[in-house]
Amino acid sequence: MTQAFNRATGWIVARPIAGWSVLLTISLIALAGYLSSDLIKTRFAAKAFDETDSQSVDGVFETPPDIEPISLTDTDAILVCQSDQFFTPDGSQAMRHVVDRLEELDFVTSILWMDRVPILNIFGLNEPILPRPDAKASRFAAARNQANAHPLVNGQLLSSDGQTMLLMLNFDFLQIQDDNDCTERIRQTAEKAVAEFPNVDIQFLVTGRVPVLLTALAAHEKNQLKYQLIGYSMILIMSLILFRGWISVLVVAVAPAVGVFWTLGIIRFFDFQENPFNDVVLPILISLVGFTDGVHLLIQIRRNRAAGMSSREAAKQGIQKVGLACALTSLTTAIGFGSLVLAHHEIVQEFGMACVIGVVLTFVAVIICIPLACTSPLGRNIHVGHGSGLVDQNLSRIGGIIDWVLQRTRLLTMTGILVTVGLFLVALTLEPDERRANALPTGSEAALALDQMDRAMGGLEVGKINVEWSGNVPSDDPQVLDVIRQIDDLLAQERLIGHPISIRNLLDALPGEGSSADRMSLLDLLPPSLKRAFYTPEYRQATISFRVQDLGIAKYGPVFFDIENGLQRIQQSHPEFSLTMSGVPIWRWRNLYQIVVDLATSLGTATVIIFIVLAIVYRSLRIGLISIVPNMFPLAVAGTYLAVSGQSLELVSVCAFTVCLGIAVDDTIHFLTRYIEEKEETGDETLAIRNAFTAVGTALIMTTIVLVAGFSTVMFSDSRDHRIFASMGAITVAAALFGDLIFLPAMLKQFAGRKKSKPSGQSG
Question: Is this prediction's pTM over 0.90?
């Protein structure tokens, strides 16, 4: 394999024109990707909060009348108003003024709020719930009671304490000139309107489907450039300190920069650029992976030049000495990233595919750019500063670590195995969870509004119970109301379920008492737009809606499970009925544990494939087994960190674990490759381990320092997901260095020496 690799890469130095041609060709393809990304795409197409529920087809349905039902969920934005003065003359006048000013905005098509809900009895007087400013104090007190008694107001448009009011806004997107129209302009318009009433204090927050989406996108775009610049600057500063030479820094930085440019351009052909991880995490990740291989290759070339080789010969020998290890690290890293494609979440799949593309392109950039730069006039003095770097000067001091390790191989081997297993057991205590607020910047208006919705209204998201009955049951049959009553009572038992609403609540609000048959006959008294929001007799369907807080979907797991079991019991006693749960919270709950399956599948697949690849390449099953502990140890450390710090297993964790596996295995491969080469040359086990440490120790320590510094820059992001990803990356890389310098040498001395092994293709 070594000889085949040398033949495959020999043209890079022998034919520099061909190398430059390859660089130019890929760069032009990437540039075409950047230019093609200006095509107009619909921004909100697949971003809605509410899923579209499919209607079952059971027999022939009548065509329902053309009536637009009231909807508390099909809204583009929600203005959350907080005050204790709503039921006062000035407060009611101020709120009506706010609504008037908002409706003057070109892009606002409709506003639903408590003053516009229909009265429950179609024969009643159509009076607004909020009294006019000249009404008496007793009228305002009565209005508060009336609002609390209205099922479409209490807990839906007004909190039970009367201090939080919701305005449901819908937009004409063709009239929107700027994203701020949907967020800041709404709040500012409301604030200006209420400012005309100096005695009234009302606070406003904007949330809802569109504002939450825009907030997440805005934070994504802001972080994209900011943290790329910070990350690259940190890499350059750390490289300058470690290399002690601007030329070396420039050469080693060119390849990752080219790899990032290629990757971000080419993934646009696959429409991956809008993925929240691909613009912020991917560039830094790819640059760090490329930097790792680049450091190993450049250090070898500098060492060759310092030994008196010509630029061309030093580059050629550098590729032959380190290139195969770089190829193996890229292959195994791509396997780690590629395992994400097995996930069921589209974001994870796209991130995994983009990472594979990036790793391959960055390897090509490293293996071509650095040798070409070193053989150009720029690399004439590339060896200047070699041996005087911070790590080089102090490597002899840390060299004593190897002697200490080799004297305690049995103890350290057992310790490494037991500690890795123990940490994995701790990591297995992680529980899956997900919160919508995690995708928003901490302290953002949308996040604060979500929190207020949780406290005052029982949550922003809405779940549904769908009730369907067969053609054998008339739509006005009392059974329909009996089933709905049982479902309502079931939901009322759950503390975390907020304000269920159905035709049962509407009918109960009407005067009078009686049996289900008597109450069912009152349906005709309800306004059609109100009744058909929860009841469609032509389709033999009814719905019960309820609110869900953003507490983390894991907290709702037992709740939804109990509800589902309760629905099965109700359905068994009413076989003509079909009861199902739907809505975004339900979808998230059903798919939550798929995250665990995705993690186990991707990690398990990647681990097995990496083990097989290493066993084949090194022609040794024993070497493949030895590599498992130093590769799994960093992941166990990262998992334990999450568990001990009280974190959950989330979407970002799935990405981070598999990415960390791809990065952690790099150092192991470089150490193993050099160890086997040294063992072939010296025939001495202990000397081979010492020489491998000396040869790759500098690069391992340097790359770890730079990787940790690069990940650390992302920890300042205002996105919680980015901070978790960065902290896991930094911890994993640091733990990987410890495993490769402590556990790996001990295990090689303990086990590998019992059988001679070498990379495939190498001759003794």
Answer: no
